[in-house]
Amino acid sequence: MRFDSMRDRMSSASLACIAGVFVTQTLAPQRDEVAAQEAAPTKAASTKAAPTKAAPTKAAPAQAMHAPNLGGQTSVAVDGGHAFSLPVPGLSREDRRAFSVGNSFFRDNWVAAPASAEGRDGLGPHFSANSCSACHQEDGRGLPPLADVGVGRGSVLFVSPVNADGAPHPMYGAQLQDQAIEGVRPEGRIELEPQRSFIAFADGSRAELERWDLRVQDAAYGPLGEVRMSLRVGPQVIGLGLLEHVPDAVIRELADPNDRDGDGISGRVHEIRSADGRASVGRFGWKASQPTLDAQVMAALHGDMGLTNPTHRAENHTSLQSDAVQAASGGDPEVDAHKVARLAHYCRVLAVPMQRVPTNSDDLARVQRGAQIFQAIDCAKCHVTTLKTDESSPIEQLRNVEFHPFTDLLLHDMGEGLADNRRDGDASGREWRTPPLWGIGLIETVNGHTRLLHDGRARSIEEAILWHGGEAQRSRDAYLALPKADRDALLAYLKSL
Amino acid sequence: MSIEALVLISGVLTSSNFVNAGKIASSLVPSSRERVTEVARETGDIPQTLEAQCVRAYAAMVHDEYRASLASAEEMRAAIQAFCATPTMEGLTRARETWIAAREIYGRTEAFRFGNGPIDTTRGGTETFINAWPVDESYIEPEADSATTGIIRDRTKYPALGRVILKLHNQRGGETNVCTGWHAIEFMLWGRDQSETGPGNRSFTDFLDANSPHAERRREYLLEITDLLCEDLTRLVKAWAPDADNHRRRFEQDPKALRAIIVGPGLLAGFEMSGERLAVPLETRDQEEEHSCFSDTTHIDFRANIRGIALVLRGNGAASMIDVIRVKDAAAADDLATALEKALVAIDAMPVPFDAAMRKEDGTPERQKLTAALEAIETLGESISRAAKSLGVTVPTEPQG
Questions:
Q1: Is A99 near chain B, with CB under 8 Å?
Q2: What are the pLDDT digits (tens) for A116-147?
Q3: Peptide bond into B353 cis (omega under 30)
Q4: Inter-chain CB proximity A5 and B10 less than 8 Å
Q5: Are B284 and A448 inside 8 Å of each other by CB?
Q6: DSSP per residue over B325-375, as a string?
Q7: pLDDT tens sequence across B183-209
């Protein structure tokens, strides 16, 4: 599509810069510096030195780690409040129409049955959101249910009894919904009590981290007992049709479950067994629990909105919840295969915005420096910069596309700090799928907040970095050891994505 | 979702250059001379290039259109104020008439969207408050008499109905949770459309204290969102006023101004009209997806939108966008002019009311006319994309190849 135009617009120098070329000589002394800082973390004065002197613009146009076209030739040059809402370019009329129809099902509120809006009823009886757009407003990222946010704006809560190995709660089911249709009680009220802590950088400065104690109040169907809870926000819905068609073999190749290369990073495929016993690679959701977009859409319709569909035929309440059992149905299923296909199509073709390349030379140098650091401190070992689709996508434009998602789609042990300690399929309570980083710099523009991580606890990109533990502990520690200018460079780079 | 895009430009457009009066650029097509001279007389200088003349003429036209829109909205406000002071059937009828008239004028201005102008400033932009759609009306007030939820009835959640509060709650927790703008006012004036043949038939007694415990809140809410709409339109008029330190001044000097102009019609035709507003109701047959579904004036929306597009492309007779394109690519300009003409004809032939027509079986004359309109608008969107290419501008509706 418009690469020629993009190239015209940018100088060839800036293209080379943004390519994030990793130059070993430039970074080698910095790694020594990092080691020195780790040895003496309190000696702030000694930490301002060589690293910032690196001259990344000298980088030869060697191997490009990524490029401004994060979604390959399917990227869109778009900024502003609807940055996540454009389809990939070049769609046929038929695919464009299907996109618009899918958008309407994604955007519009579902209502309780029976209703005059026949095609859109069946909500609940319990639900966490009454539309997809509630949690993915403007196709972007949702918010946790903090006191000033309110319910139904971006998160869902999974619950399991403490010793049940991830099994659904016998009374409340797998998810606890904090809203209900008229005549049915919401299952409970989710209360977050923020807790603050501090973490120190090698240079002596500190960062504040927020997390929270999570409680369910007003449990409507009796006490929950001791439970494992997992709060999860809706991420931006871009580039999913690319991730969907990375061949299983490629993802398996990235995995290193026994850490044979000894880099401290393993990475495990979330193997999903379908009803017919076929194994497939889980790739969607915070735990990579869903192998396809259709499966992801149907799980969300059912678990988050209480809408039955071809895969989930039973309502999302348990038989013990008598008021919910009596609620009217919106049909069997409430969302039919055609609507599911439209929704999946919509999610499949939402395009990835291009990286925003600074035009100012200082900013450009900073972003370029950040790209180098991203490689140097091994962020890219999990946030893999380049993947490629095969020929299997139903959408012609999405076939054989090389793109830059910054994920390996694998599960990683992220340490105690992020653990929800609740098994989810084959994923342990410490494992999370590497989330793609494309678009993270636009969340603030689209959604008016900068909250990240599975439960939205991080208030900024930096807080999210600082929560990394487990397999990512070494990278986190390396970040703590960086001089401020380099930390800022890394953040500037991430914001440009 | 409504679509707003920044579109690539490859740098072929030069900055607008303005020189003193008297120098009319040689590239000017003869028919445009008169209008440009007129502009020059007003402003004291004359744009040097055809592109710059086009940008100037566009800015003046946008200002005129928003002014007309504000004036008609203020007439509507006067009618709504009169109705709320003394709710009568006649008062409600008058308010509805003024809404339809004002809505038609506003509809033309939708062709000025998508260019990152004042109407679509990034987050929480003016357009979101003026024209968000579709409306889940139960967010404003549920249907059942017994219901206690929604903005009008839930006094715990919404104790006050001030503008700041309403803006805060607009599209909160879902994109159809709309509580401001044209379609919220439309819902208040017509109510739900449960008729096969006509629009919603809300009774004026909904606004009489003697008849409904919610009447006072309804009046308060309706007055507030009407004020808010006028306030937002006033801001748009100011942003495009001549001789001020405002968006217009920067726009007239912006080398990317032509891009902003062409993207509006491109996305309005290529996405909003053809996709959101036509492909969706044609497939779902869902009345909620009809654009002005409470008042059954959807056909007027389409007619106004396409006339707005025609205004932008054909201009006011001088240095039009089509003139600019013709210099670069005559075939693209001809193709665009033809596509526009066909879309105008197809839209004017759309059956009324829209909701009854869209629910008909496939193959009926009504459905065929709606499908013909859809295809004509899609063709127009694609023609605009091709024409834009000659300006070095990419509109994301461009078909592959």
A1: yes
A2: 767 889 999 999 999 999 999 999 999 999 98
A3: yes
A4: yes
A5: no
A6: HHHH-HHHHHHHHHHHHHHHHHHHT--SSHHHHHTSPTTSHHHHHHHHHHH
A7: 999 999 999 988 888 899 999 999 999
pLDDT of A53 strictly over 50:
no
Could you tell me which of A283, A287, A274 has the C-alpha nearest to residue A239? A283
DSSP A485-497: HHHHHHHHHHHT-
Amino acid occupying residue B367:
R
Asked if A273 and A264 touch (Cβ cutoff 8 Å), the reply is no
**Contact across the interface for A80 and B6, Cβ inside 8 Å:** yes
A36 lies within 8 A of chain B by CB: no
Residue B401 lies in a domain: no
Residue at B272 is within a domain: yes
CB-CB: which of B192, B279, B399 is closest to A90?
Answer: B399
Q: List, in sequence order, every residue forming a beta bridge with A271; answer none if it has no partner.
A: A281
CB pairs under 8 A between A and B: 159
- Judge whether residue A423 has pLDDT over 50: yes
Indicate if the pLDDT at residue A62 is higher than 70: no
Quote the minimal CA–CA distance from A381 to chain B in Å: 33
Residues from chain B that touch A130, judged by Cβ atoms under 8 A, are: 173-174
CA angle A205, A207, A213 (to 5 degrees): 150
pLDDT tens readout for residues B173-190:
888 999 999 999 999 999
Ramachandran category for residue B15: left, alpha or beta (phi over 0 → left; psi -120 to 50 → alpha): beta
Supply the range of the domain harboring residue B130.
49-389
Which amino acid, A247? P
- The Cα–Cα gap between B229 and A208 comes to 42
Q: Contact B176/A139, CB-based, under 8 Å?
A: no
Q: Look at B11 and A103 and tell me if their CB atoms are within 8 Å.
A: no
Nearest to A323 by CA among A479, A182, A117: A182
Report the 10 Å Cβ neighbour count for A276: 5
Mean pLDDT for all residues in chain A:
87
Q: For chain B, how many structural domains are there in total? A: 1
Which residues contact residue B287 at a Cβ distance below 8 angstroms, ignoring those fewer than 6 apart? A117, B193, B281, B293, B355, B359
A141: chain B residues, CB-CB within 8 Å: none
Residue A10 touches chain B, beta carbons under 8 Å: no
For residues B212-218, average pLDDT: 96
Q: Looking at residue B397, what is its pLDDT? A: 54
**Is residue B398 pLDDT above 90, yes or no?**
no
What are residue A131's phi and psi, to 5 degrees?
A: -155, 160
User: What b/e string do you get for A120-141 counting C-beta neighbours within 10 Å, with b at 16 or more?
Assistant: bbbbbbbbbbbbbbbbbbbbbb
The CATH number covering residue B356 comes to 1.20.1420.20
From chain B, pick out residues whose CB is under 8 angstroms from the CB of A447.
Answer: 123
Inform me whether the C-beta atom of residue A64 falls under 8 Å from chain B C-beta atoms.
no
CB neighbours (10 Å) of residue A389?
23
Facing A79 at nearest CB: one of B6, B275, B286: B6
In a domain? residue B39: no
Has residue B33 been placed in a domain?
no
Cβ neighbourhood burial of A345 (10 Å; 0-12, 13-18, 19+): buried
pTM: 0.86
pLDDT at A194: 93
- Closest by alpha carbon to A181, among A329, A318, A332? A329
Q: Are B234 and B393 in contact (CB under 8 A)?
A: no
pLDDT of residue A277: 78
Q: Which of B136, B138, B275 sits opposite A100 (nearest CB)?
A: B275
Residue A135 · residue B172 · CB < 8 Å:
no
pLDDT for residue B238:
96
